[in-house]
Amino acid sequence: MHLENVKIKKMKQGLHPENYRLVAFKDMSNDDVFLTKSTVDTKETLEVDGVEYPLFKLEISRTSHPFYTGKSKLVDTAGRIDKFKTKYSKFKK
Question: Which of 23, 28, 54, 91 is the most core-located residue (most Cβ within 10 A)?
Answer without folding.
Answer: 23
